[in-house]
Amino acid sequence: MADGTMTVDQKKDPYLLDPAMVKEPPKSWRGGLRFLGPGMITSAAVVGSGELLTATTLGAEVGFMLFWLVFVSTFVKVWVQVELARWSISTGKVAITGYNDVPPKIAGRGWMAWLVLLMFLQFLIGQAGVIGAGALAFSTLLPIGGDPFSTTSIGVWVLILVVIAIAIHVANRYKLVESISTVLVVLVTAFAVVMVFLVQFTEFQWSVADVSDGLRFQVSAGSMGVALSMFGMTGVGAGEITAYTYWCVEKGYAAWTGPNDGSEAWVRRARGWIRVMKLDAWVAWVVYTISTAALYMLGAAVLHPQPELRPEGPEVMGVISNIFTSTVGQWGGTVFLVGAGVALFKTIIANVPSLGRQVGNTLSVFGAFDWTDMRQRDRWMRVIMVVLPITWGLLAVAVQAPLTLVVIAGILNSLFLMGVAIATLYLSRTETDPRVKDGKPFMVLLVISAFAIFAVGFIGLTDI
Question: What is the pLDDT of residue 167?
Answer without folding.
Answer: 92
